[in-house]
Design brief:
Length: 206
């Protein structure tokens, strides 16, 4: 690890951890969505909306700290990118839940549960990795595994699209379900963006 002569602003680490922990909360709400009835889905959407607002607050706190700090633990651009990518994950998860409610989807297609399981695992890994930013130790396995999960998510997404276009669903239902599975895929991509940013930071700090 590179030796530093200047002090480091350490509050960023806690804020990144808080943001990642909130994403775990969001992923658990996604899991609750599976098999929930219409009334329960509305309540889950409300809790997800509250979690997304908490995520926005965490992101704004990071940006405020970034703008008011003379010394940062790593490059300002990387702090901004990491915070933004974490925020994107919550945005996509909240959007997916909201669409399920707004579109009054009766039954999610088979395979969505696999998408959500991948997101839940990526959320756990991301939350576990954030404290490692303090030392930059033992982070390699994290970004390798998240990249593997994103590849898995791509495969699941392609199979879901093939299922949606097999003629079982009418055109309007296809449009609704496709938008939901596409947003879940964007969440998986956002996890990969976080992992890639962490890798960039680690390489610079090594």
């Amino acid at each position: 690890m590179r030796f530093r002569l200047t002090p480091r602003e350490t509050s960023f680490y806690d804020m990144f951890s808080a943001s990642a922990d909130n994403i775990v909360t969001g992923s658990k709400l996604l899991m609750e969505l599976l098999g929930a009835d219409s009334a329960s889905r509305v309540e889950i959407a409300e809790r997800m909306r509250a979690a997304e607002h908490a995520g926005d607050d965490a992101t704004h706190a990071i940006f405020h700290q970034l703008n008011s700090s003379f010394i940062t633990p790593f490059d300002r651009e990387d702090i901004y990118n990491l915070a933004s990518s974490l925020d994107d994950i919550m945005d996509f998860m909240e959007e997916a839940v909201d669409l399920v409610v707004l579109y009054q989807v009766q039954e999610l297609p088979k395979g969505v549960e696999q998408q959500i399981e991948v997101l839940a695992r990526a959320a756990e890994l991301t939350a576990e990795a954030m404290p490692g930013l303090r030392t930059m130790d033992n982070l390699t396995e994290y970004w390798i595994e998240v990249n593997r999960l994103e590849n898995q998510a791509d495969q699941i997404h392609r199979k879901l699209l093939a299922h949606l276009f097999n003629g079982k669903y009418d055109a309007i239902e296809v449009l609704k379900l496709k938008q939901i599975v596409d947003v879940l895929e964007e969440a998986a991509d956002a996890f990969e963006h976080v992992a890639n940013t962490v890798e960039t930071i680690a390489v610079k700090e090594s």
